[in-house]
Amino acid sequence: MQAKTFQKRILDYYTAYGRKHLPWQQNKNHYRVWVSEIMLQQTQVTTVIPYYERFMQRFSSLEALASAELDEVLALWTGLGYYSRARNLHKCAQVLITEFNGQWPNSVATLETLPGIGRSTAGAIHSLATGQSAAILDGNVKRVLCRFYAIEGWPGKPAVQKQLWQLAESLTPAKKADQFNQAMMDLGATLCKRSRPDCDICPLQSHCQAYADNRVNEFPNPKPKTTKPERHAIFIIARCGHEVLLEKRPSQGIWGGLWCLPEAPLDTNDRDLAAAIATPIACESVCALPSFRHTFSHYHLHIHPRLLSVAQKPNAVMDSDRWQWQDRRRLDELGMPSPIVQLLKNLE
């Protein structure tokens, strides 16, 4: 299939079936497109929509986001996961205000230099916001191209990635790139799905190599399997009335910048748990709660909660920016990991 034929079928598909009524497609501008693209990384549209609407209601402009406290940004992000996206979103807004005078760069190359914006995201922002030609290669587009051309190898491998980028750039039209890119993402999300793709109604079916070879389910080739390491840790729930003691995690690493429960090594004795906190607390009793596992992209974390009953909060903790007593009925005021929020809400 010639590139022009490929483009025509995709654009015709967009005209007939493309999604045109998503929140970020209304009153479209760089800011709205950018926030949606960051939220949509590794997250489905249906999950993103309510988060996006709440986010836009609070931060309606680049200036509003740049001037906000990171804690407030993370609080609105709680539940979306991959929190480095939120930290980079906030940092990027500040860079755009301070270094670009609040103006969006008019080139993909410059967009790529901004925090949290990679090559595909830069292409999506540029093309969707302006209509100018720029290739994208998100997970949905990779799946469409891998099947259409029956590309062997895991798409995460540099050689395969390079081949996919060459194809994406050769296929992206000079005009209507915004419609073309939106249609390619829609096609991958709604027809060329990971499992049970709707090949019978796909506009590319007649020339799809994977379909012709009856190998659709083999593409994209899966990532080579590896065994994820297992990690165990005690999470300390120091409770005084309705309040619990939270610790702000370092900005780098897992759950970076979020408020979380203090941790202790798994072999810590119950009598030593209170002392494991930077400012020791007077503990009346310790109760072991059911353990559970939370999976990250590269390891499994086994969380072993210990509930410590505290008679009185020490004032020294309140004076530290790293520690905070928080009412469990107002957890939504802080950026916190979802499993920790759920654990605290289920205490009763």
Poorly predicted runs are none
Mean pLDDT: 93
What is the CA-based Rg, rounded? 24 Å
Biggest sheet layout: 8 strands, mixed
Give the total of beta strands.
8
Assign an overall shape: elongated
What order do the SSEs take from the amino end to the carboxyl end, as H and E? HHHHHHHHHHHHEEEEEEEHEH
> What is the strand content?
5-15%
Q: Can you give a write-up of this model?
A:
The chain is of the alpha+beta class. 40% of the residues lie in helices and 14% in strands. The protein has 14 helices and eight strands. It has helices at residues 3-17, 30-40, 45-58, 62-66, 70-77, 84-99, 108-111, 119-130, 139-148, 158-171, 177-190, 209-212, 315-318, 338-345; strands spanning 230-240, 243-248, 259-260, 263-264, 283-288, 292-295, 300-310, 323-327. Strands 1, 2, 3, 4, 5, 6, 7 and 8 form an eight-stranded mixed sheet that branches. A hairpin with a 4-residue loop joins strand 6 (292-295) and strand 7 (300-310). Helix 2 (30-40) packs antiparallel against helix 8, helix 8 crosses helix 11 and helix 9 crosses helix 11. The radius of gyration is 24 Å and the shape is elongated. The N and C termini lie far apart (62 Å). The model has no long low-confidence stretch (mean pLDDT 93).
